[in-house]
Amino acid sequence: MVDMDGRVLRAAGDVTGGDVDAATEFRFRQAGDMVWGRYSGGAIRLGFVVGTSDGAALRLRYSHLNTAGETASGHTVDRVEELADGRVRLHEAWQWDSRDGSGSSVLEEQPIPARTGRDSA
Length: 121
Known about the structure:
This protein is mainly beta and 121 residues long. The protein contains no helices and eight strands. Strands 1-2-3-4-5-6-7-8 form an eight-stranded antiparallel beta barrel.
């Protein structure tokens, strides 16, 4: 079971039909099967997700405020993929609740930068 607690992910690119773009950062927390988090950046001023995980998939509700001052909400089911280096990739199938539309997107955990020089001690 992949634990999402403390993971930071970004969209792999702009999302057609959605407000999320490559500058949007997602910060997740997890306790047991409960998952929640915040997201912001790019076209998103502030957003929240909450839902559950069975280790193979996340089932989340999302709500956010975009930079145009509009609120939006929806739901998503994210297939969890654990990469060879231990990072996580989420394959999302999302649907708006607050307006028409649905789509898919990919979120990928950001690698931790290598420490060099004086920072490596």
